[in-house]
């Protein structure tokens, strides 16, 4: 099992717009596709970065599901970022393999 994570560093002036888009538009569409076993949107409470930091986490059975996401849904994130929030939202991806889960 792989945890695929996208971390967002968000300027405060777009925080409400960004979080509303993720919660009420992006996540419901992603959940409808059932690519992942689950997805979560979290706010990082102790981030050392300026602005707000969020994490979009998706639980994936393997690399294939992540590639499906990257070829479709991730492009939506990139388009939205470049069209609406250029220079005010930064993101980076990471993948983590589950070693133990209790």
Which characteristics define this entry?
globular, alpha+beta, 4 strands
Characterize the structure shown:
The chain has helices at 15-33, 63-71, 73-84; strands at 2-10, 38-43, 52-60, 89-97. With 102 residues, it is of the alpha+beta class. It has a single domain (2-52, 59-97), classed as Alpha-Beta Plaits (2-Layer Sandwich). Strands 2-3-1-4 form a 4-stranded antiparallel sheet. The model has no long low-confidence stretch (mean pLDDT 92).
**Name of the level-1 CATH class:** Alpha Beta
Q: Give me the side-by-side strand order of the main sheet.
A: 2-3-1-4
Characterize the largest beta sheet: strand count, sense, and whether it forms a barrel.
4 strands, antiparallel
Distance between the termini: 13 Å
Secondary-structure element string = EHEEHHE
Which runs of at least 5 residues are low in confidence (pLDDT < 50)? none
Mean pLDDT: 92
**Class by SSE composition:** alpha+beta
Q: What is the molecular shape? A: globular
- Looking at CATH, which topology would you report? Alpha-Beta Plaits
- The tally of strands reads 4
Count of helical regions:
3
Tally of individual domains: 1
State which percent range the strand residues make up: 25-35%
Tell me the CATH architecture: 2-Layer Sandwich
State the helical fraction: 25-40%
> For the CA atoms, what is the radius of gyration?
14 Å
């Amino acid at each position: 099992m792989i945890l695929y994570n996208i971390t967002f560093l968000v300027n405060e002036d777009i925080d409400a717009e960004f979080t509303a888009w993720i919660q009420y538009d992006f996540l419901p569409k992603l959940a409808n596709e059932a690519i992942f076993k689950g997805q979560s949107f979290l706010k990082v409470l102790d981030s050392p970065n300026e602005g707000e930091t969020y994490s979009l986490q998706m639980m994936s059975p393997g690399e294939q599901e992540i590639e499906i996401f990257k070829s479709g849904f991730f492009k939506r994130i990139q388009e939205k970022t470049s069209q609406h929030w250029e220079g005010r939202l930064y993101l980076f991806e990471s993948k983590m393999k589950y070693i133990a889960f209790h």
